[in-house]
């Protein structure tokens, strides 16, 4: 169940990225640390996720 929730969170984060990637970061949130946490729980490679979804750091 935890992996399903993290998958949903990763999905929401990717959507958020595409909607707001040109906007300044609010409240000092570390967006990419949240992505990394999801990848860790899902046991997927962070670099592959960044590459697949064109997440620029």
List the helices and strands and how they pair.
Elements: H1 2-20, H2 31-42, H3 46-52
- CA radius of gyration is 11 Å
- Number of DSSP strand runs: 0
Helix content: 55-70%
Structural class category: mainly alpha
**Tally of separate helices:** 3
Q: Please write the string of helix (H) and strand (E) elements.
A: HHH
Largest sheet: none
Uncertain runs with pLDDT below 50, 5 residues or more?
A: none
Shape: globular
> Hey, roughly how much beta strand do the residues contain?
under 5%
Q: What is the arithmetic mean of pLDDT? A: 88
**Cα-to-Cα separation, first versus last residue:** 29 Å
Counted up, domains total 1
Notable traits:
mainly alpha
If you had to describe this structure to a student in words, what would you say it looks like?
- The protein is mostly helical and 57 residues long.
- Helices cover 67% and strands 0% of the residues.
- It has one domain.
- The chain has helices at 2-20, 31-42, 46-52.
- The chain is globular.
- The mean pLDDT is 88.
Describe the structure concisely for a colleague.
Helices cover 67% and strands 0% of the residues. It has 57 residues and is mostly helical.
